[in-house]
Amino acid sequence: MLHQVIDRRLSGKNKSIGNRERFLRRYRDQIRDAVRKAVGDRSIRDIEEGTDITLPKRDVSEPTFNHGPGGTREMVHPGNREYLKGDRIARPEGGGGGGSGNGASPDGTGEDDFVFRITREEFMNYFFDDLALPRLIRTQLLADAPEWKTRRAGFVSEGNPTSLHVVRSMRVALGRRIAMGGDARVELRKAEEHLALLEKRPDTPPAELAALKAEIEELRARLKRVPFLDPFDLRYRNRVREPLPTSKAAMFCLMDVSGSMDEARKDLAKRFFILLYLFLTRHYQQTDVIFIRHHTQAAEVTEDEFFHATESGGTVVSSALTLMHEIIRERYMGSEWNIYGAQASDGDNWQQDSSKCRELLDSKLLPLCRYFAYVQVADEDQNLWEEYTRVRDANVHFAMQKIVTPAQIFPVFRDLFKKAPAGTV
What global pTM score does this model have? Predict the structure, then answer.
């Protein structure tokens, strides 16, 4: 049975979905660059909204064919109410024609760039296009929500007409016709040879010749009744679904809320973690996000408490790292989990505790983590930054950056979570 699907969705007033998709594919690189430039002036709360994208006119120009100078030709100008056929039109002043259309006008204004609006989904897709969790490994098959891939698995006798394999079907039909008409062809050949011998004999009875000719006609009719193509001959490409190993990840978000973290620094840290949370929820379904706030003591909190709670106190950074290690041992031990960590702090910490943080990372956390990123929301090189520098030099899967102004959040985020080249680990 042939099925037809008719899409009756409206494209919207004065819009074409097909043309828009072709435009986005053609100028993907230019739009991606424009999105990255646009995010620098936007707040975190506005990042999931659509925006106007401006592309230089030269980047979206299309090649055109124009008439060269000279020659005799006739043209029809729509809306002409002044001239008639045969009238001579004065040359424009300045020695040029109508102009190329992309230069400056006599009043000094230039041609506008191409501006169009992209939706929220398009904006987020372009922004997170080349980002990924580093060193992520697919580890296990999940029974509740597996990921699937489709592979070819031979041929079947029933299927969708679009998956019909013509060559295989004709091959089966040819084999069937040979099998069904093989005996009849042998008998026909023998009968024709016998008829040829009898016709050479002058004494052959006419009744015998008539009977042999009737037998030959019956064999030929039997061969014609063998269908050229039977529904039994049809073969369709068969495709089966196989479950894929699914990546399960746990991201630990550690934020310093001590007294040295003023509102400006807390705002930078929150913006970074909001961006990280948006990235994880959009690209990874099997990802647990664990929020930890700390001052002198660390506590696992909900998403709302992580971004909106106001308590403060002294600074003991190791308390957050210790709590992270305890949670990993309780809930996320095993080879099926990819452990990640992201920490934000101003770097102010007790001298003895900073060295303890380095030891915790080196001996306990980094051996369990696929990747750990530290962001310092202050420009001063505090003792924690110095200790973490030693950790970074000894571990390739530990990264650290500084964020001092809101404009640095997006470049730093992209640098920390950029997609590794193919073939690298």
Answer: 0.56
DSSP state of 112: P
Q: What is the bridge-based pairing of β-strands 147-156 and 236-244?
A: antiparallel
Specify the residue for token string 């037809």: 4
Q: Quick one: tokens of 250?
A: 């746990």
Answer for the pair 133, 338: CB distance below 8 angstroms, yes or no: yes
Q: What DSSP letter does each residue of 62-96 carry, written as one string?
A: -----PPSSS------TT--S--TTPPPPPPTTS-
254 phi/psi in degrees, rounded to 5? -110, 120
Q: Which residues contact 397 (CB under 8 A, 6 or more apart)?
A: 134, 135, 366, 369, 370, 371, 372
**DSSP tag of 246:** B
Distance CA 419, CA 293 (A): 28
H or E, element range at 398: strand 398-402
| CA distance linking residue 321 with residue 307, whole number of Å | 19
Nearest to 371 by CA among 425, 317, 301: 425
> What is the chain's pLDDT, residue by residue, as a tens digit (425 residues)?
556 666 565 555 555 666 667 767 766 777 777 666 665 555 444 555 555 666 666 656 666 777 676 777 776 667 777 777 777 777 767 554 444 444 444 444 444 566 666 666 666 666 666 666 665 554 443 444 456 678 888 898 888 888 899 999 999 998 888 888 888 888 888 888 888 888 888 887 888 888 888 888 888 888 888 888 888 889 999 988 876 655 678 899 999 988 888 888 888 888 888 888 878 777 676 788 899 999 889 999 998 888 887 777 788 899 999 999 999 999 888 777 888 899 999 988 887 899 999 999 999 999 999 899 999 998 888 888 999 999 999 999 999 999 998 888 888 888 888 776 555 54
Q: What angle do CA 40, 43, 47 make, to 5 degrees?
A: 85
CB 196 within 8 A of CB 256: no
Residue 423 has which token pair? 């073939």
Distance of CA 285 to the CA centre of its chain: 15
Cβ–Cβ under 8 Å, residues 249 and 238: no
3 state SS of 252: strand
Answer for the pair 336, 139: CB distance below 8 angstroms, yes or no: yes
Report d(CA 418, CA 412) in Å as an integer. 10
